[in-house]
Amino acid sequence: MEDATGQLICYHDLVMLMNSKSTARHGDRARVLRFLPDRRKLVVQRVDGVWTTEAARDMAVVDRSFLRLGRVVANGSGQVGVVMSTATTLDLSDEDGVVVANGVPTAEVRWVRELCLGDYVVVASGWLGRVFKVIVDVDVLFDGGAAVCRVMHADSKQMRTLQKDCLNRRTNSCFYPGQRVVDGIGGDVFCSALWLKGYYKPSYVEGTVSKVHTAAVLVHWVASSLSWSTSPHVKKPPPAHQLIDNVTFFCPGDELSSWSVGDRCFFRNTCSSTTNNAVGNNPLLLERAMRVTNTHTTVDVAWQDGSCQRGIPSASLTPTLAMHWFFPGQRVVVNHAPAGADDDNNVHRVGVVRSFSCEDRTVRVAVEECATEMEFSAYDLESHDAFYGNIIVRHRQPILYGGYNLSWVGKVVDLPCDDDVRVKWGDGTTSKVSLDEIAVVKHTYVAQMLQEIGHREATSSAANTLYSATVRMTKWVGAFVQAVFRLVTSKVLAQDGRYHLEPAIAEASSSSDDKVAGTDDKEEETSDVVEERMPKTDANNDIFNFPQFDVVQSPSDHHYLDTKELQGTSGFSRKWTKTVHKEWKILKNDLPAGTIYVRAFEDRMDLLRVAMVGAWGTPYHDGLFFFDLHLPPSYPDSPPQVSYHSFGLRVNPNLLDSGMVCLSLLNTMSGNSTELWSPDSSTLLQVLVSIQGLVLTARPYYNEYGYAAHVDTPVGHRNELPYSENAYLLTLQTMLHLLRRPPSGFEDLVRDHFRRRGRHVLRACEAYLKGGCLVGTLDTEAKATEASSVRPSSAGFHLALANLFSRLVEAFINIGAQGCEQFNRLRVSASHY
Fold it and tell me: Where is the UBC core domain (predicted)?
């Protein structure tokens, strides 16, 4: 989606509204929140917190304060670079709209809360952690200060605000000084509060927030300054609960923790320290929060051609995915395994990037072990050590270490073309250090962190805004599958723009509704449509001889096998058991033919294992994808837990390399009420069809957070191709992993599937290598279609595919795959790519 000037609009952009009728009331600045299905309008948050719907043609992007160190960006000409530093200033006003100050550096102001969700903090014992919950106490005034109470551990359920302030919960407290609040759902919050002055009266139902105190935080510890020590006591992390005075802020967690219009803040230092101290010590004195009305951000960028540019207006840069973009001086590891090699035991070579070809997706690398430069596919490379913006800890401590000295934790700010990196340390100093002196802290997004540590707030909208609900139906699903999906999620597709149907698919969906709901003749017609869409079977119409649903004994390699919640059938309630049996019956009768296979377990009714076949028309064609499911004792009041067999590969934006499956139906990403799990209507079949139809799609690039706006734009066209190429290469790598280590209980499915479809996989590789066909455009027999020649695949894709092709031929021949010997002749020619 583009603005009035043709600039791409992104989530969290600051825009100027040019023709809005409400400008006089709400101001002309707004933050982009959500795109609507028509792709012409979007929802924005105004300066006063109000949400309005505006047309894209009536706005212009003016700032991108969310850009951060290490963010990959592109300019108007398509040149790609990485952010080296940013500088943001704020325009501030009071609650009445009166200007307080303009151009204020962010270092001079603070949030209402002292810390934000995802912030990195340190403690005196030398541990670095991330905040996953902020606990605040709120002072409330009544009768003009005649009485004051303190609500401990306040949240929006305890007290309701009278103003409709839709603040960013990642960075802002639910409450701020000057805000009018009333008792919450329970009706006894003020009664049970700590009264600092006066006493509770039943008439005290509405008050004014005078202060917000950050009392404590819950911290997930990620690294220690003494991590190299062999002493066991230094490796034990501190308690998660920490008083606010015990932690020191190091840096924000991610780019969603950025300043934007409507944010409330205070100056860090007032003109009068005496006044400041008086306000801080006296709960009766009200220090009113200021409101951010505008942001101004400039960016320093290191471009791929080796040049640097400083002070670039942020709105002139477009954020792009960091996947397979490489920069001079960056150290990389070459994942280039020869035929017959085991990925787990392959020795990876390390080198330094000299140059990168964006069009060809190839990289010139100075390989350390042979002291020469070689050309590799970008898809065969990974960042090896530190990169711009990485948080690192120092192994070797200065002699003078202790207390809150932050010289041991820092951020990478530059990559000189040698074995050193330049780091800005927590104490403000900057120095070059060798790579063997530091360790990189693995960064995860806030939602993923919360999910991994099992924090319940991982399902809240604040914790899950990272993951896009932009998921798209694809043609291969077939009329029957689409009809099943619509029966359980019709409102989702109709009401929220983050689910998008192609026009042609929408037509097929509409016509299939009548077929499914009609007579027996119409149901037979629907089966014909399904048969057209689904992969063909062999002559005797026997699909693998592998039942689509069966109940067997639980496998020893199930992801949730060690779950201790009432293991076995005897520990579950009768209602739970009845519900599970009902789910089994639905799965047995209604699974889409030939594409989803399910195993339930008689000794562990709470577990299931699922295999899905990748569809033609997508980068996942002919692949197998496995998922382990767990039904908690609270099921169906809470959704099932799902883990993907990733083998450490991220084949899709919604399938993380950790195995986490990001889907609103699983409450692992945000969504409207109609998108989330419903105990009354949601089923396991709905979950499986959602993954099949909404995750493993034809154009996975647009599943990335915020990238639905890139559909039919130059940015989208530029990035969609390499994303699909990479998804296909990862699908092939997944095949090799599955052939070596098939999930228990599905050995026959893996073997038979690739025996029958192996030649089609190799035929597809041949079409991509020799014909330059576009990924995901082949038919069920791996033959080119009209869409195959729209754009050529990249040279880097050919290099990576040629390497995988030889390994696939060998693997398929080893299992007796039909018709694969003929491809032996291509193994030699493929090696020349």
Answer: 575-736
